[in-house]
Amino acid sequence: MDFPKYLLGDNSDYPTAIFVIHTEFPRFIINLENDEVEWLEDFDAEDQKELEAEAENLIQGATEFYDREIALYDED
Predict the structure, then answer these.
(1) Which of 25, 29, 38, 42 is the most exposed place for a label (fewest CB within 10 A)?
(2) Range of the domain at 29
(3) Nearest Cα residue to 51 out of 25, 32, 21, 29
(4) Which of 25, 26, 29 is nearest to 65 (CA)?
């Protein structure tokens, strides 16, 4: 099954949180309420270096995805 690169998620147990799920490697969930990131991968030392270099871009992409989705809702 193919998934989009980003998915939006919410949960009634976290009424003010908005989650963006990144479905490609390295998979993660970011809570846009507080910018907390939960990585869904185990990283070795070599992966950790690559992740540190790319993390800012991935998180920025998640935020841009959310902004674009909200703008589409606002158009309706």
Answers:
(1) 42
(2) 6-75
(3) 25
(4) 29
How many folded domains does the chain comprise? Answer: 1
pLDDT, tens only, 12-39? 999 999 999 999 988 999 999 999 999 9
CA 62 to each of CA 7, 16, 44, 46: distance values in angstroms, whole numbers, following the listed order: 9, 18, 24, 24
What is the value of pTM for the model shown? 0.84
Structure tokens at 66: 């959310």
Please indicate, yes or no, if residue 1 is contained in any of the structural domains: no
The 8 Å CB, 24+ separation contacts for 32-35 are: 32/62, 32/63, 32/66, 35/59
The pair phi, psi for residue 40, each rounded to 5°, is: -105, 20
Task: Check if the beta carbon of residue 40 is closer than 8 Å to that of residue 27.
Answer: yes
